[in-house]
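A brief tutorial aside. Many learners find it easier to grasp structure tokens once they have seen a single protein encoded end to end. The record that follows does exactly this for BBSome complex member BBS5 PH domain-containing protein. Read the sequence first, then the structure, and try to relate runs of similar tokens to stretches of the chain.
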Amino acid sequence: MSGDNLWQDRETRFDVNPSLLNLVRGEKVILELNAVEDSKGNTGVLGSAILSNLRFIWHSQKFPKVNISLGHNCILSVNCIHSQSKIKSSSDSVIISAECSGEKYEFVFSNLIVDGPSLYTSLNSVLRAYVSSKMYREVKLRGSLFKDDALKTYPHEEIFREIHGVLNLSNDQGNIGVMIVTNVRVVWYALSNQIYNVSIPYLQIIDVKVKDSKFGRAIVFEITKQGGGYILGFRIDPVEKLQAVFREVRKLYKMFTHNPNYGIECSVENSMAESKQNSSKFSDDAEVYEDHGEHSDVFALYCVDGGRATNREPVYNEELGLLIEKLPDGYTLSDLWDVMK
């Protein structure tokens, strides 16, 4: 799986096909709670929450099609309040502020079980682990990769090979440096200045090949759009050495894609995740709830529009015979009336 195919940690999606709630390769359940209310959009509906290393999932227990998949990269802040619930008189609720594709959202989830793992504490722990492990998932150019002239490695990262005399072909002259191959990424830095470097996680590689260049045969990395869309080439002499490095890198890359490690290490005390690792399985033919109650646009329930710096331009609405603020893309006047009912 490449970074371009991995949407789970970078997108917020509503009411997806229940099969998309199943864990992807490398995704692990950290916490599962079986009595959680979506107090913002599905008040009074008993649901389940799954906290993984990539996202937070909520779904209705009766109708799995009613669901939310909230990627960790979308989350801006997490707060905790004591609130009233339709299902239970009082409960601890988590308020999550998020942003995706320019839209801001607010979610409120109430844990209806008092004696159990704290959703607020668990989510914050996972988010800290997610932020601190970005090197596993993001291409870094001229980053702070070294300490005391040694590569800073991360938990479960192992260095397999260090190759000197590697020519970076990113400019017309080429730069001599050192390539370091680990089980999660390939790093190159210039001998003249360590800050001139690049860290390429296997997650952001589309393909790695040996190709001809104006400098001769080179190992070429094709990077995902998410990783910047770069084409990075490196020449290693002699050709036999280049081929040996290429075979090792390609082997490690294939091993990683088969069993990716996103670098997010976190455990929750008293978590039920271990025993329920495979308990939440959703199929394409799961019972589907088509009527979402009294609203036709689920996005409007969670969308926070107050953060805009300026109002949208006014447009004439023939139905009302008035100038109104231009509606967001995908919205109709009927949708907004339905939300207000």
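Self-check: Confidence is low (pLDDT under 50) at residues 270-280, 283-296. If you spotted this yourself, you are ready for the next section.
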